[in-house]
Amino acid sequence: MSTPNLQALGWDAAWADWLASSKYAGAAVGRVARMETSVVTLWGAGEPVLAQLPTRLKAPEDRPAVGDWAVFQPGPPTAKVRDILPRRTLFERRAAGRRTQRQVVAANVDVVFVVSGLDGDFNPRRIERYLAAVAHSKARPVVMLTKAGALSEGQRARVRADSEAVAGEAPVHLIDVIDRVEPDAAEQYLGEGTTAALVGSSGVGKSTLLNHWAGEQRQETREVRARDGRGQHTTTHRELFVLQGGALVIDTPGMRELALWADTSALEGAFPDIEHLAGACRFNDCRHGAEPSCAVRQALAQGELDSARFESYLALREEVEATSAEVEAQRRRSDARSQRLGRRPGSRSGRR
Ligand SMILES: Nc1nc2c(ncn2[C@@H]2O[C@H](COP(=O)(O)OP(=O)(O)OP(=O)(O)O)[C@@H](O)[C@H]2O)c(=O)[nH]1
Ligand SMILES: [Mg+2]
Ligand SMILES: [Zn+2]
Prior knowledge:
Elements: H1 13-20, E1 28-35, E2 39-43, E3 49-52, E4 69-73, E5 79-84, E6 90-94, E7 102-107, E8 111-117, H2 124-137, E9 140-146, H3 153-167, E10 172-174, E11 195-200, H4 206-214, E12 239-242, E13 248-251, H5 264-270, H6 272-278, H7 295-301, H8 307-340, H9 348-351
Helix pairs in contact: 2-3, 2-5
The protein binds guanosine-5'-triphosphate (GTP), magnesium ion and zinc ion.
């Protein structure tokens, strides 16, 4: 199989300029199309290249993500990744496990489709959480509510209203690619050279959407479990696909939970209504708790701001702040350790 060329994969003048003025001028580059633990699949140089990662890029938080541009040293014997180009956008989350660290999901994506099924998976709180992660990524969010065919007109209107109330500036689409409800609603976001990612819980129909856009079965899909309506984690790798029209789409495995890796400014992006209200609070660092003249509390009392949405905002803020505090504590501990060992604080070896 021959891979698309660099231009077809989204390589543009700005990427080329970066490379030409870097210490890697003239080196081979490729786009990460698939990621396994220590091997990446790179496209853009004829045949797919399987490249090894250097130690420096092996830690989960430092690893390349699908969508990254990588400078590499071609084989033989084996191709090796030398570096990753600075990312324009990055969808990331907090990794599961005790250690506080991030996990990169998809890089250099223009659009993130937040996919949610209207068959039981639907939950406005989950959409808020995903939108906060998209705001942090700097990509453009689009909410795709799948399996709309089973809903009556009235139910659709209600779901649409509930979703638009939490979607902020993100467009919301109710679709069904099997029962053909607005099956081509996403076309407007899939222009030539655009990179999009599909994210959401297992079983919501991410791979089904990809197959529909591709016009053929590129990814396996599987029914949700009859017992609880949950997906079966059918997709197990993040992978890049090229559509006929020239758009690039990253399909991802369903997430059990999306723990945020973000800063509070991402919440501003996901909760523009609350941010707007906050502009009228007396204190510009108002936490919307017990402060006097809090416009957010006032809007709550007057029923202009939904209390479930405000609770959700507070919970996500707490989560983001707790993670930042843990990261800071981790950094201090490792700097102290480095100093004891006589290393420069913050040096790579000190951070491991
Ligand atoms: N009726 C209907 N069924 C859908 C739609 N989208 C997906 N499905 C069904 O939902 C099930 C799960 O779809 P997948 O595409 O495998 O879901 P996924 O999000 O890729 O799941 P993971 O790979 O596990 O994360 C399949 O049986 C699909 O046929 C839709 O719009 N309408
Ligand atoms: Mg899938
Ligand atoms: Zn306030």
